[in-house]
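Running log. JK asked me to keep both predictions on one page so they can be read side by side. First protein, sequence followed by its tokens:
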Amino acid sequence: MKILTVDIGTGTQDIYLYQSGLEIENGFKLVVPSPTMIVFRRLKEATRLGEPVVLTGVTMGGGPSHWAARDHVKAGNALYATPDAARSFDDDLEAVQEIGIQIIGEDQVKSLPSKVSRLTLKDFDFQAIKNALAEFDVTLDDLDAAAVAVFDHGAAPSGYSDRQFRFDYLAERLDPEAQGPGGSILSKLAFKRGEIPGKMTRLRAVEISAGEIDAPLLVMDTAPAAILGATLDPVVKKTLPDHGC
């Protein structure tokens, strides 16, 4: 069995290829810059050169890329973004426009001059990972499954703080009474392809980006994924109650 697992953080994305028959410590691993850091660096370079930029693609993690986008506009450079790409910075597109980013439709991107640099936003770049491993004669053409973790606070309605929206979402998913027996477990925050709640826009964007993978896909929030992973440690496992996480 071969399973590609990717944990996408703010600074790095940690990639591990599980293969049955190999000891865990012998599995192939990559720790490379996170997608938001890649966008950050490319925007910084465009700012240095004074180039206009258009952001396309899907909703992804913000943070560094958001800071670079803000600085790009402050430096007097044009920055365009399609709606889905713009939501990487804020679910409220009016708030995105207020910092100087111009929201345009997908059809308008084609009409922009060639001097406008194109940046495609996405958290999960399967082709890049596949190409990197191929350099070492490792193929991903025969995957049995893929699992990707990102931090997703969800798409909060206007006037609803992202932080509170996330807390309410976690409470909803982990409420034992709402979920029935065995409901209060962290696996309730993992979703198969086609089962992701609509409000979890970043997880759904990962699902879109993973469309070329012809194997089962699991997406999950990074924090509970890390906790569940820690429970596999034999020392940690001894401290857990019988019902686990």
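And the second, directly underneath as requested:
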Amino acid sequence: MARFLDGLLALARAHKTPLAGGDLSETPVPLADIVLIGSVPAGKALLRSTALPGDLLYITGVLGGAPLPFLILTGWR
């Protein structure tokens, strides 16, 4: 755990990124949940809605999964 934290702090310093908060708990496997929040100047954000044919669009995870918890909670079948 100490090596992980040392590396995380080194990266934060290198990129001038403040770290805030954190909860610790013990698990049988290493687990890290990191949230990054940032902003871009108005009019400078690259949006999927403005992508053109030939542009590269990188996606992680599974598309369309966001409503799944709601559907499960409401009993949708």
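Observation for JK regarding the second prediction: The CA atoms of residues 1 and 30 lie 8 Å apart.
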